[in-house]
Every structure is written in structure tokens, then in C-alpha cells.
Automatic annotation (TrEMBL):
Name this protein carries in UniProt: Rhodanese
Pfam families membership: Rhodanese
InterPro entries on file: GlpE_sulfurtransferase (IPR050229), Rhodanese-like_dom (IPR001763), Rhodanese-like_dom_sf (IPR036873)
Coiled coil: none
Chain ranges of the Rhodanese domain: 16-103
SMART domains in alphabetical order: RHOD
SUPFAM superfamilies in the cross-refs: Rhodanese/Cell cycle control phosphatase (SSF52821)
């Protein structure tokens, strides 16, 4: 499986109602300014501490502002056996392509 997924592919996957784990790695301030429905906020700095609370068998999508933090999160979760992909371009691409009402 590719480690990245486009925002359109992510949107379609979310709409398919497949069992997914959606994680937004931005800071709480950024997350509260605007987020995508269904994504839970776990800042990258807290991700390693939260791994025991996550479901490693679920397909996991990671999102951040532009994709940079998501790639760091990907390495961490892949090392612990997660089935994980990064939403390429992060919230910036999501706002540009799917929902221009999101503040970025």
C-alpha cells in the first residue's frame, strides 16, 4: 500500500464508511481553528504516548497542516505495526480541493 493518499482519495475512503482511524496531528490551537469531521486531535508531540490507546489493526489516516508532521507520525506508527497512510498536502490541500471554508 502506498504511504500517501490524495485528499480526494481520503474523502472517498471516509465516505465509504469503512472502519478507519482518523488522526489530526496538528496542535490543539490549530485543530480548534478548523478541522475535518471525524478526525481526532492527537498532536504529534503526544503520539508516541497515545499509541497504546489507538487501534493498530484499523486503517489509519494521518493529517496535519501540509503533510510534514504526518510523515513523522507515519514512521512512528509504521514501526509499531500500524496500517497507516498520510493525507498528502494535509489540511491545506483539503481546503483547496474539497472544503474552501476551512481556515488554513
Amino acid at each position: 500500500m502506498d504511504t500517501e493518499i490524495t485528499v480526494i482519495e481520503a474523502r472517498d475512503l471516509i465516505r465509504s464508511k469503512k472502519t478507519l482511524q482518523l488522526i489530526d496531528l496538528r496542535s490543539p490551537v490549530e485543530y480548534n481553528r478548523g478541522s475535518i469531521q471525524g478526525f481526532i486531535n492527537i498532536p504529534l508531540s503526544e503520539l508516541s504516548l497515545k499509541i497504546p490507546q489507538l487501534e493498530g489493526r484499523k486503517h489509519t489516516l494521518l493529517l496535519c497542516q501540509d503533510g510534514t508532521q504526518s510523515h513523522q507520525g507515519l514512521l512512528l506508527l509504521e514501526a509499531t505495526g500500524f496500517n497507516v497512510q498520510v493525507v498528502r498536502g494535509g489540511l491545506r490541500d483539503w481546503a483547496r480541493v474539497i472544503d474552501p471554508t476551512l481556515p488554513v
